[in-house]
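Q: Protein A?
A:
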Amino acid sequence: MTSTQVGKDGTGDHGAPLTAQPQADGPGEGYQRALGARQIQMIAIGGAIGTGLFLGAGKAISKAGPSLILAYAVAGLVIFFIMRALGELLMYRPVSGSFSEYAREFVGPFAGFVTGWTYWLFWVVTGITEVTAAATYMTYWWDIPQWLSALVFTVILYCANLISVKLFGELEFWFSMIKVTAIIGMILICAGILTLGFSDAGDTATVGHLWSEGGFFPKGIGGTLMTLQIVMFAFLAVELVGVTAGESKDPRKTLPKAINTVPWRIAVFYVGALIMILSVVPWTEFKPGVSPFVAAFEEMGLAAGAAIVNFVVLTAALSSCNSGMYSTGRMLRDLALNSQGPRIFTRLTTRGTPLVGTTFSAALMLVGVWINYRWPGEAFNYVVSFATISGMWAWIMILVSQIRYRALADRGELPQSSFKAPGAPFTSWFALGFIGVVITMMAIDRDARISLYCAPVWGLLLGVSYLALKRRDPDAAAFNVRKRTGPAPGTAPADPVDSGRE
């Protein structure tokens, strides 16, 4: 394996400033670069569209009214800042373990350890909840045991992820296509109702609904602020495109394009969709637990609306579980390659997929589904609630890493990225402050506060585990990072032994 050792102070092995150019994209990590531009674009789009929009928006609308549109717009801007910060790091060094790799290099080995294991847990828990939800959605059409559907879905997605990364990309492409088609279809239908006046809602539909029912801020600014946590949770997984860096055919070309589409994705799929729906249906008609899409279809008199939304939400849940299968194996392998996880997780199949890490994670997802089915109690709800704060931890580490990287690059101690975040580091500091506001709102909200109770417990567990790991293997706490994106031009190929391939 080729590696360039980078000290805590941004210097090389012998303390000299690091001035080499970023490494070329290659097979040094052992993965196959099989994800094309088409798949990367849809993975990026799909990561921003989940059940949070199709189902969770109903609760947010009832809390904030039309001002939820503004909340999504501001939060979307923050997400763009986060993604551009990630893009700057990815173009500096595109690696599959992105978040933990950058945290390890620019914050410290413990930060990389915490980020890697926390992001892994986030996707395991998310996978459990999403595959359970998918099994529930199946009962809309067929009376089959929930555990059976959950088992079948998990096995299918597990096999797809082990066969090849290209198959994962294809599944994610079509899952995302269904979600995108559903939202665009809804926007076009609503636009037709507003302009042509057809359907049962044609006589009452008007953009005036955005301010006529108690104003744009019917619950006050406070009500809007309290929805920020719901809004930000809807964007969780948008950072997934960063995990694909080690398996993209041309990451330096495809990843910037995917990241630069974030603003219009949010403008169309969140802001645009909400403007249209709230123009057709007054916000007072929405209730928590009821999909705004279903409510809009009912208002239009379209009986098939519920079935359509159920199918779309089913694909959204399977898409999330598919992403979880993909992410967990890569995160475990990155931790193992940096001596922060069991060495067995480094193993790859002949097709370049992380066999043991994906299998271990899938097994936990199945156990979690069974536990959720057998004992759907408060303890499981606590774990699920923690998923939200753990997802935001990845965003925090992205921003902090980008701030520290930019400082080193500006001093000439590291090469400049070819995809600089505009306005950074000020935009990164703003995004960090916004996340701080969201966490504060979580502390105030009784329903969301439970997430903050779980975080210290997980942090303590990781702290104890890290101390034990550090005592057993000092390499796990070394202030350097292995650059595993492949050999630089003119250097020898990576040692095949280090790839972990079986």
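Q: Protein B?
A:
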Amino acid sequence: MASDNYDGKHIHDRNHLNGDVISHSPKKPKLYSFITDSEIQSEFSHHDPAVARINNGSFGCCPASVIAAQQQWQLKFLRQPDHFYFNELKKGVLQSRAIIKELVNAEYVDEISIVDNATTAAAIVLQQTAWAFQQGKFQKGDVVIMLHYAYGSVKKSIEAYVSRAGGEVIEVPLPFPVSSNDEIISEFRRALERGKAEGKRVRLAVIDHVTSMPSVVIPVKELVKICREEGVDQVFVDAAHAIGCTDVDMKEIGADFYTSNLHKWFFCPPSVAFLYCLKSPRSSDLHHPVVSHEYGNGLAIESAWIGTRDYSAQLVVPAVLEFVNRFEGGIEGIKKRNHDAVVEMGEMLCKAWGTRFGSPPDMCASLIMVGLPACLGITSDSDALKLRTHLRDNFGVEVPIYYRAPKDGEVGSVTGYARISHQVYNKVDDYYTFRDAVNQLVSNGFSCALLSK
């Protein structure tokens, strides 16, 4: 795993568009103590204090110091847009890309592009796949494989780009609850066999690193290795939750494409993500879906200017790095503490409700699936959404609920799981509030069927 500490490294990268050079020389270590609990709460004092916010996974969070840095960038643009465009923007974006390159252990800064979010990154990769079908490089009926639990918008992108271009899509059915990586690996191998049947070619595998709902850490290194062994053309890892949440190392993972949002677990304001593209002859055929003046100058440069808009979220990465390095162990320390805390809080909730996790703790990152009492009567996706709304409106608890259909013959099984997150701003009381809300519903004889009346 690459070091997440950027300080002390010397990076010397060239912007191929304007010839600018950014050099980061080693700095003397700052003499200050690590961030205190009160300082953490101050950084997130803009959060609604009436809400137990245990859903960092959906929209992330941004500390006050980073918001202030963002506002400074916004004001620089508004004061003198021409100076900002010609003298500030490209240098700032390159600096952010250089930091990300070190954080994820990429080989070259040109392999890192900054885009709005993982959905945009998926469109870039899948657009290239669609062109390959349309240009005859891929044959009608060639296959793209994705996980059944792929994020909804990514599934829609595959439908929009791949299916319309003539590609066949095969979903990998994943078990849930899941007890081991072997279950995932076995299902993935079977899907590859189906994809290669009758002489077809698997052109692209889309693999999540941390699935959204239900949330499980996928053994991406193993699945990428299998793809290489089985002749899959390219591998795209959709890791919307990954950076700041679990280990991210481009050289170890070995995918062709990898994307992760920086606003979910890396404290950036919305919305910003990176897209890693392994340097190869084929990477020159990647383009941003929004065509602007920079078209043809490489994906990273194209993505850095898609017209007049607010680029401040892409420029605050150095400020975010300063924030995370106020914590002992930097981002590595934050990841470990969040994981340990979410497991501890999940175990407390499972004990209170007599349920269990949806996967072992070692298959979780900073999110974990906690079984809800069966008596709540969650019988559909609609029930799950209504219960989530009920918890928000009546108890001040913000937490996603997942419906898991019972298997044939199952009676009285757990069909509802809460996806709880833990981020540095969370307190034990947030989880106690959730526990007590569910206990109150159970003691009142509540059932989701009552919400439809």
